[in-house]
Amino acid sequence: MEKKLDKLPIHIAFIMDGNGRWATKRGLPRKMGHRKGAEVLEKIVEHCFSLGIKYVSCFAFSTENWKRPKEEIDYIFGLLREYIKKQNQKGQQQQEQEIKSKNIKIRTMGDLSMMPKDLEQEILKAEERTKDCDAFVLNIAMNYGGRDDIVHAFNTLIKQGKTIASEQDISNALYSGGLPDPDFIIRTAGDVRLSNFMLYQSAYSELYFTKTYWPDFTAKHLNKALKSYAKRDRKFGQLK
Ligand code: FPP
User: Fold this and answer.
1) How many Å lie between the centroid of ligand 1 and the Cα of residue 215?
2) Within a domain: 70
3) Domain harbouring 204, CATH code
4) pLDDT of 199-214, one tens digit each?
5) Whether the CB of 215 sits within 6 Å of ligand 1
6) Which domain holds residue 141?
7) Which of 20, 26, 175, 209 is paired with 215 by a 20 to 30 Å CA distance?
């Protein structure tokens, strides 16, 4: 299967939707859908890594998700905390083995100052610890909104007294500054919209929507999506 995936995206982004519906369908509390969703993300990240995809972004918590019940928000933050802590512990061992160049770089997008302080600290520690790792980048959107990203970028440029001479100046000031734009965005669970995700960065992204709920999404589903990507003719506004 992998051999047929000759045209792979360099950067793939996931809108991991359907966790709640997956759980409700099984008579489980919504939070169990998020837990399964976090497990699936780890597997999908590993699969992307093994295929040679270098950048993965994922939408873990949006600026709009604050409207959910506190219990659900706390549970999602708990999963993020668990994941980042695990990465930090793993990283500690790997650092000792001096294989930094083969490790995952963790980046985040969004206003972390509104997250619980201990989680913010753990994330900053992970970002700092992995800043020189360059085998693979996992970019997690937390308290992220695409419009907020643009407002934040403009304010950063204003504070730095910079003028905006090019589109690249804005790209660089976004939370994802330094990362290439996503080539491919996958949204699970049936809705056909971007829901305020990477609005500036997705100008030329190829989009893929599947009805599969995120907790049911497997490497097989990803391979199917990647086959669709490989068939697409990306023109970037030119004649080809
Ligand atoms: C959308 O499903 C999903 C979320 C709002 C949370 C996504 C979070 C995770 C997968 C876990 C944490 C991530 C990491 C990095 C460990 P929904 O709740 O909107 O589903 P619904 O539309 O069916 O209600």
Assistant:
1) 9
2) yes
3) 3.40.1180.10
4) 999 999 999 999 999 9
5) no
6) 11-229
7) 175
